[in-house]
Every structure is written in structure tokens, then in C-alpha cells.
From TrEMBL:
The lineage of its organism: Bacteria, Pseudomonadati, Pseudomonadota, Gammaproteobacteria, Enterobacterales. Gene3D superfamilies: 2,3-Dihydroxybiphenyl 1,2-Dioxygenase, domain 1. The keyword Nucleotide-binding does not apply. It comes from the Bacteria. Residues 6-129 form the VOC domain. Transmembrane segments: none annotated. It holds the Pfam family Glyoxalase. It comes from Candidatus Pantoea multigeneris. This is VOC family protein. InterPro entries: Fosfomycin_Res_Enzymes (IPR051332), Glyas_Bleomycin-R_OHBP_Dase (IPR029068), Glyas_Fos-R_dOase_dom (IPR004360), VOC_core (IPR037523), YwkD-like_dom (IPR037478). Keywords: Metal-binding. The keyword Metal-binding applies.
Length: 129
């Protein structure tokens, strides 16, 4: 049997690399671990970490096509982050101009959660730990 040990990283292609890097680092609190410009692709690649752990590869490509990003579209539904207090996290995001949906309660776990989007409309979730 295949022995997967953990998710190594999540790759995200941004339409505006600088804007998305600022969102993930300045708004969500990721740290830029490494950054490289790949001239042969006219593309940036940034490695973003959370709490010291490498999590996201952030890419730019010239003129990437738009992707359907609504949570119920086929494919990746959303990317979820654990937080100790959803309401407090929502207030902190609101202070930075990020609009979240109203808090939902997960019917299976009873935990609070909410959804919001990155600059390209990628659905993101805050889930109460």
C-alpha cells in the first residue's frame, strides 16, 4: 500500500504575484521562506510557511486562465486553516479589509467555521480548532 506521510505543500497560481504574496503574508500571517524568479518561464515562485512549516508554493505565470473557484465546483473545494477562535479571526481579517461569510456550524462536529477568498477568488476556510 502507498504510504503517504503528510501533505507536502499546496501550489497556488496567482494572477498578480505581488498582491497574492502580500495577502498570504501580510493578511494571513504566512512567512516568505524562499523566493525565486524563473526567467525561462517569466514566473515567480515563493515558498510560504506557517508556524515554521513549509505549506504553500505561490506561483505567477503570464496570463493564467481563470478557474472556477466556487466551493461547490468540481475540483479543489477549498483550503482550510485551523484557528483557535473563528469569530476573533474574522474580526482580524475584517480589520484588513477581508470579508468573510457568516459563521456556520459544522453539522457533524459542532465546530464553527467561515469562508472567505484570496485575491483570485480561491475559497479559503477558517475552522475552529
Amino acid at each position: 500500500m502507498l504510504q503517504l506521510t503528510h501533505v507536502h505543500h499546496i501550489a497556488i497560481i496567482a494572477s498578480d504575484y505581488a498582491r497574492s504574496k502580500a495577502f498570504y503574508c501580510d493578511v494571513l500571517g504566512f512567512t516568505l521562506l524562499n523566493e525565486h524568479f524563473r526567467a525561462e518561464r517569466n514566473s515567480w515562485k515563493g515558498d510560504l510557511g506557517l508556524q515554521g512549516e513549509y505549506i504553500i508554493e505561490l506561483f505567477s505565470f503570464p496570463n493564467p486562465p481563470a478557474r472556477v473557484s466556487q466551493p461547490e465546483a468540481c475540483g479543489l473545494r477549498h483550503l482550510a486553516f485551523s484557528v483557535p477562535d473563528v469569530e476573533q479571526a474574522m474580526q482580524q481579517l475584517a480589520e484588513k479589509g477581508v470579508v468573510c461569510e457568516p459563521i456556520r456550524i459544522d453539522a457533524l462536529t459542532g465546530k464553527a467555521c467561515t469562508f472567505f477568498a484570496d485575491p483570485d477568488g480561491l475559497p479559503l476556510e477558517l475552522y475552529q480548532a
